[in-house]
């Protein structure tokens, strides 16, 4: 099922323009919104998603962008100037099984797995734009970023009824 763009997708989309140079990877592409936004500013954009149906749909809708099925970096060998990621970031809910939302038992496990691998796919001076929620345990995300030796800063946020959304620039 395609993740329809919501507040989180639109918040991340607003941050892309100054970073979309060279090669761009849109991890967990979902609707393709970040890939389409990046494609406005650069020519080499790859969108990947774990769901083959999502990839099939994105290929039909956006033929000028490359899409492929991948579980995080399992099918990605290249390096990029920019990686965007609006990950599943909600704590696991046994009543609602949805890979587009389920970030693991505590909500940050998918983000952690991504951050461990991402540095191998960044060009020198490459940047990650990472979106996550206050429900993902912001302090734990900071711990992971520090442990993996990333520098980071918050570049956007939005308060919602039951959570706060953050976009971080990660290097």
Indicate the multimeric state: single chain
CATH class: Alpha Beta
Instruction: Compute the number of structural domains.
Output: 1
CATH architecture: 3-Layer(aba) Sandwich
Q: State which percent range the strand residues make up.
A: 25-35%
Q: Cα distance, first to last residue?
A: 31 Å
* Main sheet strand line-up: 3-2-1-4-5-7-6
The H-and-E topology, N to C, reads as HEHEHEEHEHEE
The CATH superfamily is: Vaccinia Virus protein VP39
Low-pLDDT residue intervals, each spanning 5 or more residues: none
Which structural category fits the helices and strands? alpha/beta
Layout of helices and strands:
Blueprint: H1 7-13, E1 23-27, H2 33-39, E2 44-49, H3 52-61, E3 66-69, E4 80-85, H4 109-118, E5 122-133, H5 138-147, E6 152-159, E7 164-170
């Amino acid at each position: 099922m395609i993740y329809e763009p919501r507040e989180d997708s639109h918040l991340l989309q607003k941050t892309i323009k100054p970073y979309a140079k060279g090669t761009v990877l849109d991890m967990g592409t979902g609707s393709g919104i970040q890939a389409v936004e990046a494609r406005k500013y650069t020519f080499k954009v790859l969108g990947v998603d774990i769901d083959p149906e999502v990839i099939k749909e994105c290929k039909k809708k956006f033929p000028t962008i490359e899409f492929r099925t991948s579980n995080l970096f399992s099918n990605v060998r290249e390096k990029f100037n920019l990686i965007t990621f609006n990950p599943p970031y909600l704590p696991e809910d046994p009543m609602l099984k949805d890979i587009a939302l389920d970030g693991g038992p505590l909500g940050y496990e998918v983000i952690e797995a991504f951050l461990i691998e991402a540095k191998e796919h960044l060009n020198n001076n490459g940047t990650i734009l990472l979106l996550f929620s206050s429900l993902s345990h912001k302090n734990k995300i900071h711990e992971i970023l520090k442990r993996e030796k990333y520098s980071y800063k918050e570049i956007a946020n939005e308060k919602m009824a039951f959570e706060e959304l953050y976009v971080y620039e990660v290097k």
